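Supplementary Methods. Inverse-folding protocol.

Structures were first reduced to a discrete structure-token string of length 492. This string, shown here, constituted the complete conditioning input.
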């Protein structure tokens, strides 16, 4: 009995020591527990202090230029900031960036999973002859917690992070990784199974960042200066309860609207705000929200918003959110995470859906019927179970992580081409005829996008720690991050 008491005390001391060091037990994608760094604040703060010291030393030759530029970043051109959000906005410009070069093709990655939210990089070709030691690293540094990805525009990379008791939108210089500005508010979403911090990747549109925190704080922020333009809380004002794993759907910009998914009842499930003012334009549906981001697609010649809620997939009109079609898609506890893939086969409009927790995948067809669409299932099986990742489509074949193993299936029939390569619960991008896989352990892997076989071409360790965040390719750079590190690699 005494031995058990000693062992128990030793275990308590070990757990306490780990907690003091910012480490705790969380579940990985498979559900098995693993120790992860959950508090990276000390390392991050030390790194940013070092950046400020370096910049201060370099700016002594031209202090006035730095001071003036930093002042512009703090206040904006007019110096006016909405008083309701100025009080809790921590705007911390580090230093002005160098003059921004003209925007090159492929230098903008405006949305979660790319401009079309489909995980496809279609600009200049990537490098495929990777050195044995991996792609050349441009920079690497600590980052705050959370599972958001980056968006890239105007020579900067933007993301949202957890730093102590604040959610922080941060802008980084793309070339150096240097922090340019931050915009923060009180927020500390905590979740013991998956991890803490914000989930939803910000959206870039016409000089503004639209960021959504895990607890419903929605902000429009000037992308050049970090100053807040307007704010709402999509949960409180739509009488919606937060999800178990937090607000995760990235805001979608369509015309003059920013579309968000609070999941409120009584017509408050899907909401369109004015992108310039933040005022509501329309509200629709009573569906409980899921974790999938809204998408814009044209089906049957009709522009529409694709939404996957906790129990169904829908097409909504852009003008007022009216339902054009619906397709039942109910997963365990409403955990729909994977993005839909709209595509055309022999002139017919189809959509691919996938989910984990034993659900599987399906393709259904949409046929115009008056002012609405009819849906018909083409196939459904369990050969592609995207748990909290999304698949990509290439030349009629779908590639994705079936739970933790990479697989390829035929989009027309649902038949499996191959399955191989254990990458954990990571994320993938399609670039040309290749897949970029960011594994759950932070490795970057190059795989041929071919239905013939699983062919891994290169692999290297990029960042350390549990990695569920989506990679990004923009301006010839591969950007990766997780809950503790961020890095950039040359991939042009």
């Amino acid at each position: 009995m005494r031995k058990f008491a000693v062992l128990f005390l030793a275990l308590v001391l070990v757990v306490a020591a780990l907690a003091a060091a910012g480490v705790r037990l969380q579940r990985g994608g498979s559900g098995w527990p693993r120790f992860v760094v959950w508090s990276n604040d000390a390392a991050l703060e030390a790194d940013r202090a070092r950046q400020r010291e370096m910049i201060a030393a370099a700016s002594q030759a031209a202090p006035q230029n730095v001071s003036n530029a930093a002042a512009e970043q703090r206040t904006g051109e007019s110096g006016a900031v909405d008083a309701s959000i100025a009080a809790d906005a921590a705007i911390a410009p580090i230093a002005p960036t160098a003059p921004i070069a003209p925007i090159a093709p492929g230098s903008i990655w405006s949305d979660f999973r790319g401009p079309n939210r489909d995980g496809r990089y279609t600009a200049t070709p990537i490098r495929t002859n990777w050195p044995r030691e991996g792609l050349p690293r441009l920079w690497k540094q600590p980052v705050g917690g959370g599972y958001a990805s980056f968006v890239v525009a105007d020579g900067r990379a933007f993301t949202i992070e957890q730093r102590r008791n604040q959610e922080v939108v941060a802008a980084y210089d793309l070339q150096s990784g240097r922090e340019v500005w931050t915009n923060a508010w009180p927020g500390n979403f905590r979740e013991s199974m998956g991890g803490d911090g914000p989930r939803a990747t910000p959206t870039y549109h016409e000089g503004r960042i639209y960021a959504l925190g895990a607890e419903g704080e929605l902000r429009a922020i000037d992308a050049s200066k970090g100053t807040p333009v307007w704010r709402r809380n999509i949960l409180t004002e739509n009488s919606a309860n937060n999800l178990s794993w937090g607000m995760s759907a990235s805001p979608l910009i369509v015309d003059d609207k920013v579309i968000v998914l609070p999941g409120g009842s009584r017509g408050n499930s899907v909401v369109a705000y004015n992108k310039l003012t933040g005022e509501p334009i329309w509200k629709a549906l009573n569906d409980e929200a899921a974790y999938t981001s809204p998408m814009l697609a044209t089906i049957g010649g009709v522009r529409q918003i694709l939404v996957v809620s906790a129990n169904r997939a829908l097409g909504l009109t852009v003008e007022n959110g009216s339902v054009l079609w619906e397709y039942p898609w109910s997963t365990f506890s409403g955990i729909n995470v994977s993005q839909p893939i709209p595509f055309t086969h022999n002139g017919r409009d189809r959509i691919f859906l996938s989910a984990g927790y034993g659900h599987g995948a399906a393709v259904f067809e949409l046929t115009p019927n008056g002012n609405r669409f009819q849906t018909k299932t083409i196939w459904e099986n369990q050969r592609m179970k995207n748990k909290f990742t999304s698949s990509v489509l290439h030349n009629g074949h779908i590639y994705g992580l079936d739970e933790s193993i990479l697989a390829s299936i035929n989009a027309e029939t649902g038949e499996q081409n191959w399955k191989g390569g254990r990458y954990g619960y990571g994320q993938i991008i399609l670039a040309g005829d290749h897949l970029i896989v960011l594994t759950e352990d932070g490795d970057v892997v190059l795989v041929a996008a071919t239905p013939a076989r699983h062919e891994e071409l290169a692999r290297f360790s990029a960042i350390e720690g549990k990695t569920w965040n989506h990679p990004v390719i923009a301006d010839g750079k591969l950007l990766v991050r997780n809950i503790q590190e961020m890095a950039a690699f040359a991939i042009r």
